[in-house]
Amino acid sequence: MATLMTGIKTITRAMVLGAGMGSRMRDLTDDRPKPMVEVGGRPLIDHVLDRLVAAGVTDAVVNVHYKADVLEQHLQTRATPAITISDERALLLDTGGGVVNALEHFGGDVFFIHNSDSIWRESGAPAIETLANAWRPDDMDTLLMLADPTVALGYDGAGDFVLMDDNRLARRASAQGGAYVFTGVSIAHPRLFLHAPDGGFSLNVLWDRAIAAGRMYGVLLDGQWMHVGTPEAVAEASAVLAQDHGS
User: Which H helix or E strand runs over 224?
Assistant: First the structure.
């Protein structure tokens, strides 16, 4: 399997955020965590991990909280990637705190961060490959994959970020149009987490700091992003995938 070359080295590590409560997924998450909800006949977590493995990831950390045993048991059935569990049963740490809690597992290397409810259809080159090839370690603390909200499935917002001419990111102003939505996939350098807050906090805290320093960039997905956050979105995404596979 070919691996992806970046400005530093191949990116072989990833953090998958699997600890969320999945509150908007009820009743689908009454007996399982959100990453185990099936889309197109397969759990969301397998869609995510298969994409990462195809991109050259060999080691992944998955954080767990709600219905953690169900997710852990499923992950034990996978041969690849090698999976380490970051246990948040006692205290849910949000996105930023969850990554900080697992940071020691990345050995000081650059790594992917991937939400467990984000899948997409690709129109061009593999999206994670495009993201990795755009990584510039000297200039970037984090690089986000963005999507066009006007063609996204399961998303009805106005977008999160404005993509500047040099691919730096700025927050969308409240009345500003033409912004892109974050897909839930990014690359992070460990220096992004220097002097991070203690306990639970959102990655947005660190992103705002990176934006202020001019070290947060974005890459646009060539395809259709599917935010699978509600039962309705699960049904819609499953229908799209079934159509793609001719079933």
Answer: strand 223-227
| Per-residue pLDDT at 247 | 44
d(CA 43, CA 38): 4
pLDDT, mean over the chain: 91
User: 67-91 as b/e, with b when 16 or more CB fall inside 10 Å?
Assistant: bbebbbebbeeeeebebebbebeee
**Tens-digit pLDDT profile for residues 51-78:** 999 999 999 999 999 999 999 999 999 9
Q: How far apart are CA 137 and CA 5, in angstroms?
A: 12
| Secondary structure (DSSP) of 126-138 | -HHHHHHHT--TT
Report DSSP state, residue 200.
S
Q: Which CATH class is domain 13-244?
A: alpha beta
DSSP state of 211: H
- pTM beyond 0.70: the answer is yes
| Domain map (residue ranges) of the chain | 13-244
For residue 9, the model assigns a pLDDT of 54
CA pair distance 31, 202, nearest whole angstrom: 26
The 10s digit of each residue's pLDDT in 111-165 is: 999 999 899 999 988 999 999 999 999 999 999 999 999 999 988 888 999 999 9
For 5-65, the three-class secondary structure string (H helix, E strand, C coil) is: CCCCCCCCEEEEECCCCCHHHCCCCCCCCHHHCEECCEEHHHHHHHHHHHCCCCEEEEEEC
75 contacts 85 by C-beta, under 8 angstroms: yes
d(CA 49, CA 118): 11
Listed residue (39, 36, 64) closest to 227, CA to CA: 39
